[in-house]
DNA sequence: CGGCGCATGATTGTGAACAATCATTCCTTA
DNA sequence: TAAGGAATGATTGTTCACAATCATGCGCCG
């Protein structure tokens, strides 16, 4: 038997994870309602656990909870999208720097392995997997940076980025730059900090520029103040 | 009647807020057990709501949840403390910059009002209020920055900072620098970005330096690998 | 014919009882 | 006497039933 206590995830963490995966793979589109009963029978668990998972996801910002109305997949505004990328541009250079400082062979191997999976999915033309794996690449980097607060935040921002891509990406563009992840890892392996940071910033800018974040957004009007 | 829908907080948000306040005021020390039944009768609510509030606080990192054992106020390690300050040094300069760009008269007034409350608490020798208000000053700044992701993260990091102060502060030192907040606000009012950022960084460094984060920490030993 | 309001069904929110798990204490035994 | 182990009490985790709330559709009235 397994004498070593392996930290197995709780039921609710599992449920939250599966929902997050579905969102990252664009199977659950933004704004969709997540009815508790439906999810409960889909996951073969009680409604209570689903409810817990939904509150967790709400704290992470991936779903929005309207009192007495239920849970919906979040649908970030254009403004939100801009702030999100601004935040990532703030964090990820530091992530890259810390990974260069800390990463040993094992960590570099994990990065390589992940990139291999990305290439595989690209070859198979599995767009859904590509988008999810692209997000997870940044989450992996953040984890390897060793800063738990940054890592936790990136675990929230990356799924949200996938949502934003679902909302604002022009469908036909490849969306995910072919080799930018590889080049970042190569710079990290060479411990070339300046290049790695620069590549990361360009990568983020590139992803944001692909989106149609035009200013003619549907402004959410403050109907209260409008006629005050 | 109040025709304007005021977004009233849910019960569980209220409970979580009261617990957070207690932690920030050092009334709930790190590591203390938060038994559901006790809290339920203290707040005059059912255990279900307390349970929800605790999972929310766990997601925020302020309490730690051990399965089948209950909830405990978090007690961050020295390593955690260092990473926390590193993260704040990364975020708060950007916060200051954005506040300088965005803040109008109303926002500056709110900052001034907050500092007045801090001075008041200091005058009354209310150390608990001083610590809480000092944390809330940074949360207010983050909110005024207009970036919801940074603001949300600061809403988690500031209570944690209060916990770290409870753990590692030498009790007799004043702990909270007298006038550093005031000088930051003054620089913001003058729109002197360089000075404001510099003051913020010095402030954070100052707070961290006051702590006894010596390296002879109680290393949490990996008993699994130790005898492998 | 269109709009308002009420009844109805569906969904969320809450509480309480029950089951499962853990910590403590006491007893047994070597 | 100390170690091991089982009973006990306390606490967490789960389920289920019920209450509260919201959305839908129908009918009534202007």
UniProtKB/TrEMBL annotation, chains A, B:
Keywords: DNA-binding, Transcription, Transcription regulation. It comes from the Bacteria. Residues 9-76 form the HTH gntR-type domain. The keyword ATP-binding does not apply. PANTHER family: HTH-TYPE TRANSCRIPTIONAL REPRESSOR NANR, TRANSCRIPTIONAL REGULATOR, GNTR FAMILY. This is GntR family transcriptional regulator. It comes from Uliginosibacterium flavum.
